[in-house]
Each structure stands twice: as C-alpha cells, then as structure tokens.
Design goal:
Elements lengths: L1 E2 L6 H10 L20 E5 L4 E5 L5 E4 L1 H6 L2 H6 L9 E6 L9 E3 L8 H10 L7 E2 L19 H13 L2 H9 L2 E3 L12 E3 L2 H7 L1 E3 L2 E3 L5 H16 L6 E4 L5 H18 L7 H29 L10 E5 L8 H19 L1 E2 L5 E2 L5 E6 L11 H14 L3 E4 H7 L44 E9 H8 L3 H26 L8 H4 L23 E7 L1 H9 L6 H25 L2 E6 L5 H13 L21
Parallel strand pairs: 1-7, 2-5, 9-12, 12-13, 13-16, 16-17, 18-19, 19-20
Antiparallel strand pairs: 2-6, 3-4, 3-5, 8-18, 9-18, 10-11, 14-15
Length: 624
C-alpha cells in the first residue's frame, strides 16, 4: 500500500513502478488535485481492464476514460457519487505485478475527511505499506501516530523478488555476498560522490527551479554549500565529500566588500592610515569566517534529507589545493576555525558539549605542514589536538598518495572509497560532463561518483572449502564471478537514466551540466565513475585456512595473494567492459552481523572464525 499526504506523489510512485520498462504502459492519472479519490488496486493480468466494486461487493466493468475521470472534484460535483464505489480495480499487463498487488490510496491531510477515512478502511488489508513524505496537517487518524517510513522495505522486497536474478538474490539472502543498499535499488540512483562545489559556487546553480548566482561573500557561500549538500544527499544513498578549498576564494570576496564598508564608515571621522583600516578589516573577516563555518556545522547536523537522515558528508582540509599566497592563507584561517569549532563541539539537548557526527574531517599532510619549520606546522598541531579530543580529523599523506595515484592527490568519498585515478583526460576525453570549470588537460575528480558496491564474504569462501586450498581458489573465482554479475546489475540499473531524474546532480553542476532529457550513460564508462567490489573478513578467512591471522607472516602472504586475485579480477572486468571496477575495503556496518549469523547457521561455531556475533571489516583484526 502507498499512503501519505494528498499531492505527495503516491500515484507518481505507482506510475514509476508500472512504466519503468515501458513508458507507453497504462498508468494512473496524476494532478496537483486529489486525483485518487477512491482506493485503487492495481494487479497483473493478460490485458488492461478497469472495474469497481460497489458497496454490496458487486463487480462492475467500466471504460478507461471513465476510470481516469473520477477524482475528488468530480465526486464532489455529483452528490453521493462516492458512495456508489467501494474501490477500483485496475488490471494491466506488467511484469512487476506478477506476484503482488499495489494499492494506491487517497491522501491523508486533505481538506476532505472522506479521503482519510477511505485510506484507514483499507489499511488492514495490506501486507506492507510505504509512506510518501509531505507536509501533513493535524488530523485525527491512528496511522499518524506511526512516523515510520518502510518504503525501503518495499524496495528490498521488489529487489529480492523481481529486480535481481534468483541466484544473486539467494546469495545475498544467505550471506554469500552482500548487495548493498537494496532499499534504494528500485530507483536509478548511485552510491557516493565528490561534489563539484567549485563549479556551482563560481558559475551558479539551480535549486527548486530557482537560479542561485555566485555568492557575494563567504558566509553566503557557506549557506549555499549546505543547501547543495542537502539536495545532493536526497538524490543518492551514500556519502559525499566537499573541499573547503572551494569556499576559500570567497573569503577575499568578503574582505573586499568589508574594506569598502569600513572606508565608508570611517569617511568624515578623521584620517586613518591603511594599517588601521586593514586591522579592522581582518578582524571582521575573522568574524565572517567564524559565522560561515558555524553555519556549515549547525546546518549539517540539523538538516534532514528526504530519507529522514542527516547528510553523510566529509570535508577535505587540504591547504595545498590552492595557490601559495593570500588564498592559501585564507584557507588556513578557514581550516583553523573548523578545527577550533570541532574541538569545542556542539551542545546536546541537555546543554552538554558533545562531538558532532558530521561533517567528517580529513586533513592533508605534506612538506608544508609536517615539520616544525614548516609554514603551517601550527595548524597540524591544532589538528592533532582535535584528534586527541574528538577522534577527527583523519589524515591523508599527500606524498604517499602521489606514489599510489599517478601523481594526483584528492579526497576519498564519505565511506572512504577512493575514485580511480583519472585515465580519461589523458586519453583525450574532453568535457563530456559539460562542467563550467573545465580546464583542458587537467585531471578531474570533483564531479565524479561511485555507481555502487557488492561485497564478497571471504569467510564463507574459506568455510565452504573446509581448509582445502585448491577448493578455496576455485570457490573464490566462482563467488567473484557472481559478484561481477551483481555489479553488472547495479551498472545496468543506471543505464538509460535521464538527467531530469535529479537536476541538481546531472543538470546544475554537482556532477555535470547535461541537457534536459540527456542520458547519463557516457558518465558510466571510461573511468569517469567507479563501481566497487567490496570484501569482508580477511582476518577470519586466514584463520580458517591457516590457523593464523594476516598479522602473521604466513597469513599476510596468503591475504596478499587473495587481495591480488580480487584486484586482478577487477582489472580483467575493467579491460573487457571499459568500466572502472575497483577493490573496496567495505565498512560493513550492520552487514557484519548479517554475515556472522549466516556463517553460524551454515557452519556452526568455529573458534577464531565464527565464534563472535560479527566478522571483521575488510582488512581489520579483532580487538577482543
């Protein structure tokens, strides 16, 4: 059942499910008015038929035209007409309705209480319900006491029964692999990204159909950035990263504006030399930076996306992304303020200072800030103080990264997944995303994204081989190919998506500036985006096969061979398909318990392997 406020998109969701593979299929009428005035059951059949049940349960067939003409306005115009129809039944030829029936309901919260009563009457007939979000007025009905949203459960069910092949679905259920974020798979959306905030702030963007021009000061830029973050988070399911360097140029914009204001204020009050003026200006610039960073902090921990969560956002603090001189010094001021505010924390509801969850912070280390005689060494000391108190920031060595990433440096995405190095620019691929800040020959990272993740359970591979090394490698190859098929389903789910599904991403600069109706397919190939093969339980895998963990030299050698096999497979798939597959150290979250429970069910309790209620993340070791 789909329920929620009137005009909140319930019928649009039903139509999206019905027409995703066939735009010409019969759909339900939609309007800003209350179109679904009568509960409507939609089920599968051999042809399109329309009927209704009368209050005495008599089935009566009607034409398509009459069915689509019945809305609240029409029923109100004909006194008593709504009492003649108990509910509609629409039968249509659609593969997604082979094993289920969808119930579209009138809206809660409309001015007409009949709509709410009709919805309540059919609630108990459904096995599952999905609630659309919207502004709901205060009405008296029992369902408004339940503020849960199980649309994700509906997506999981559709993914399990209809969208994935049976073999992949079964492997996911049994914990052989994990098909991440199945609660979003019914929609053509992706995992995580690096937002091209620079393009959006410098060249403007559009939100909610309104043009947002380039900000005229630092604090406004911070406010716009948080609105962009919230909009992006509502159109993907994973984390996102932004760079504080993209906000730094607006400090000087504010400085110039403040300087003009100060000179105007001081005119006629006597002679002030430039040093006095600059002292006043810099004090006010510091205040603006403080207020701007505070805006980002408080907005990100109080904003809620359309899925009811705070944006999972990472802020990259890399001094060396901007040129030496005033802009780098301004970025240092911004980083200093971020660290000071994080050290202070935020107050909870009881007034106690606590550590905010977001934004995550990543601090970049290089020659200019790691030695006592480095110009920004004091900033690194402040970062260390912050880590000692708040366990953030995390750190990236730019020196090591250049060695690993072909000379490039860039931030990871929210869940620590790194993009693959830019190979398309060197191959002569131009501005396919039509970004506003394109520079020929310059490698691109902001504006790129990850298509999704499938994780292999390495512990299950080891347990299934019962310690036989030949069987282990054979089973591993079989499971990797199954993961490959599952990743292909993720990729193909995005193929054919048009830019209109998420304008903030595809049309207005977060990832691209494509035209209306343009497909995103070219951004899924050639290395512009990535797709990830995750892994879990390297520690338990080694213990099951060798009796030691990967901290032992023998275990380390075996673990590295397994990692190389995973990496080689990704390279093989990448060469064959021109899609950037990459190995991913999965942060398992709740999947750690799913895998552990599945392993115990299939193999029992094995000391050192399945004797805990969790398995280790990727390459981690036990701490118990």
């Amino acid at each position: 059942m789909i329920y929620g406020p009137n005009a909140a998109g319930k019928t649009s969701i039903v139509n999206r499910i019905l027409s995703q593979d066939n735009p010409k299929i019969a759909t339900l009428p939609i309007d800003v008015r209350d179109t679904t005035a009568i509960p409507t059951y939609i089920s599968g059949g051999d042809s399109n038929l329309y009927s209704f049940f009368s209050p005495d349960n008599q089935l009566k067939f009607i034409s398509e035209g009459y069915f689509k003409s019945v809305n609240r306005e029409m029923l109100d115009a004909i006194n008593g007409a709504d009492r003649l129809i108990k509910y509609f039944v629409m039968t249509c030829k659609n593969q997604y309705l082979k094993k289920m029936t969808i119930l579209d309901t009138p809206g809660f919260g409309s001015n007409n209480k009949t709509n709410s009563i009709r919805t309540i009457d059919v609630i108990n007939e459904c096995d599952a319900a999905a609630k659309t979000r919207g502004v709901v007025s205060q009405i008296e009905n029992p369902w408004e006491h339940y503020k849960f949203d199980i649309a994700g459960e509906v997506s999981r069910d559709l993914t399990k029964r209809l969208l994935l092949p049976e073999k992949i679905s079964k492997a996911n259920e049994e914990g052989v692999l994990h098909f991440h974020d199945a609660d979003y798979f019914v929609q053509p959306i992706f995992n995580c990204c690096l937002i091209n905030i620079s393009d959006m702030l410098d060249n403007g963007t559009v939100m909610n159909g309104k043009l947002i021009e380039s900000p005229k000061g630092f604090q406004v830029a911070c406010t716009v950035a948080t609105q962009i973050i919230a909009a992006v988070a509502s159109n993907q399911y994973g984390g996102q990263s932004i760079s504080l360097a993209h906000l730094a140029p607006f400090v000087d914009v504010s400085r110039n504006k403040i300087r003009r204001e100060v000179k105007t204020e001081l005119a006629g009050l006597g002679n002030f030399d430039e040093a006095d003026i600059e002292q006043i200006v810099e004090k006010r610039v510091r205040e603006e930076i403080k207020h701007g960073i505070q805006t980002i902090q408080y907005q990100l921990i109080t904003l809620m996306t359309c899925n009811g969560q705070a944006p999972f956002v990472t802020m990259y603090l890399n001094l060396f992304e901007v040129p030496e001189g005033r802009e780098r010094d301004d970025l240092a001021l911004c980083i200093e303020e971020v660290l000071n505010q994080r050290i202070q924390g935020v107050r909870n509801e009881k007034g106690v200072w606590v550590t905010p969850a977001f934004p995550k912070l990543i601090y970049a280390l290089d020659e200019g800030n790691i030695r006592e005689d480095s110009p920004y060494y004091e900033l690194t000391k402040l970062a260390a103080r912050c880590t000692a108190k708040r366990m953030v920031p995390d750190y990236i060595s730019l020196k090591v990264m250049r060695e690993l990433k072909g000379g490039d440096t860039y931030t990871c995405m929210g869940c620590r997944s790194f993009l693959t190095p830019d190979r398309f620019t060197d191959a002569g691929v131009g501005n396919i995303e039509n970004r506003g800040n394109y520079r020929e020959g310059e490698h691109r990272y902001y504006g790129r994204f990850n298509q999704g993740v499938v994780t292999i359970n390495l512990v299950d591979v080891a347990c299934s081989s019962y310690g036989d090394m030949d069987k282990f490698w054979s089973i591993l190859d079989e499971r990797l190919e199954l993961c490959h098929r599952a990743l292909r389903w993720r990729h193909e789910r995005l193929l054919g998506t048009v830019s209109d599904v998420a304008p903030i991403l595809w049309q207005h600069g977060a990832l691209a500036r494509l035209g209306k109706g343009e497909k995103i397919d070219k951004l899924l190939y050639g290395g512009y985006s990535t797709i990830s093969l995750g892994y879990a339980g390297l520690c338990e895998m080694c213990y099951r096969m060798l009796g030691v963990t990967h901290t032992d030299p023998m275990g380390k050698e075996f673990a590295l061979k397994v990692m190389k096999r995973l990496n080689d497979k990704c390279a093989e798939w990448k060469a064959a398909e021109n899609i950037d597959y990459s190995v991913y150290g999965t942060p398992l979250e709740s999947t750690t318990y799913k895998f552990a429970k599945a392993l115990q069910k299939r193999f029992g309790v094995i000391p050192g392997v399945t004797d805990k209620n969790y398995i280790t993340n990727s390459y981690h070791v036990h701490v118990t």
